[in-house]
Amino acid sequence: MEKIEKLIPLLPVGSIFILFCSSIKLIIYYKTFNIQIVDYIEIQEFITSFIDDLLLYSCIFGITIILYLYDFIQDSNQDYSLKSDTPELYKNERRITLIISIIILITIIVSAYYSNSTSKLTTTICVGSFLFLSTFRIYLSSTTMALPFPLFIMTIIIIYTIMYGSTDAYKIIENKDQLNYTIVFKEKTYYTDKNLKYIGKTGNFLFLYNLKSKRATILKNDELIKINIKE
Predict the structure, then answer these.
(1) Which of 20, 60, 187, 192 is deepest in the core (most CB within 10 A)?
(2) What are 139-164's pLDDT values in tens digits?
(3) Nearest CA to 123 among 175, 99, 159?
(4) Model's pTM, two decimal places?
């Protein structure tokens, strides 16, 4: 329980880190459309985005606790004094995890070479990086070295954040989103289609993106009446 007790004081720091990741996700998402979102969003809206992502990051945190407990059990069962002598048990563990890590790395490279979809490529690279880091960390644990658990989890969350922001944007650019919007202003109505896409809104602005011209349109919400969504 000593390791769990050490985690509790880190919760506030973890919340700040997740808030930071949520902000980075928004920046990556809008940057894909050449929009500097920090110029159009209030500070409190970054906090709101953190709340929207809270469930997803809570799931990651839950997985983190499980992995942390697994580490604790594994550490208590391993005899680290034997590692310098490379007993057969650790030799096999090193060999297997290193082979798996190399296979994952090769798969990522091959997928990147043959991929024709940026959103799928980003997902493949991020998921592959997660699997590679996980197996490589197991490999390191069978040696006298180790990848610190907090650093491992922070890296995984950052990878997830990059994937989250990038894939959402490229699904729109690659015309893979299934929703159509009717955006009604006081003097004009916008209808999204296969060329004109709705990409989001803040408290004061609304963003559209034209796939043909590859240009974003930024509208003020002062006269926005309603937004209707249909599949």
Answers:
(1) 192
(2) 776 666 666 767 777 777 777 777 87
(3) 159
(4) 0.67
